[in-house]
Write a structure and sequence with these properties.
The longest helix is centred in the last third of the chain and has 12 residues. Helix content is 29%, strand content 26%. By secondary structure, it is an alpha/beta fold.
């Protein structure tokens, strides 16, 4: 039997909603292990303890958020930001924007997009940084 492929994903949230805010501005992050068969397991919930930005799209904010979420291979937010572009170009973490309103809807849409997301994550695992911010869930 072959081992299931998986991706460790952080979803920015406020309870069970995915606000239309930048990733680093959300109060918490739900971290999941998402598997290629659509199964997912909640790993933990991390409070966003990153400091307030000193300027819009503060690179220090990105650094603090990625420190909170070490080991995550994809970060999902309800809104793209300049730091998502920075992440796309310089970090081994794949940025993803969801158009879904809840965490559960987002997880379902991520499961549907698993192959596309896995391909991008695999490139990042090898040190490549594709110039893609994946958008999931149509309006």
């Amino acid at each position: 039997m072959t081992e299931k492929r998986s991706i460790k994903i952080a979803i920015s949230c406020d309870g069970d909603t995915v606000p239309r805010r930048h990733f680093g501005d959300c109060p918490s992050f739900k971290v999941y292990e998402l598997y290629d068969d659509g199964d997912c397991q909640l790993v933990c919930v991390e409070e966003n303890t990153s400091p307030e930005e000193q300027m819009h799209a503060d690179p220090k904010k990105l650094k603090e958020v990625t420190n909170i979420l070490q080991g995550c291979e994809a970060m999902v937010s309800g809104l793209a930001s300049p730091n998502f572009v920075r992440m796309r170009d310089t970090k081994p973490i794949q940025p993803v924007v969801t158009r879904k309103e809840t965490v559960s809807e987002t997880l379902g849409t991520l499961a549907d997009a698993f192959e596309d997301l896995f391909d991008l994550v695999e490139l990042r695992r090898r040190g490549d940084y594709p110039k893609v911010i994946l958008t999931i869930g149509s309006k």
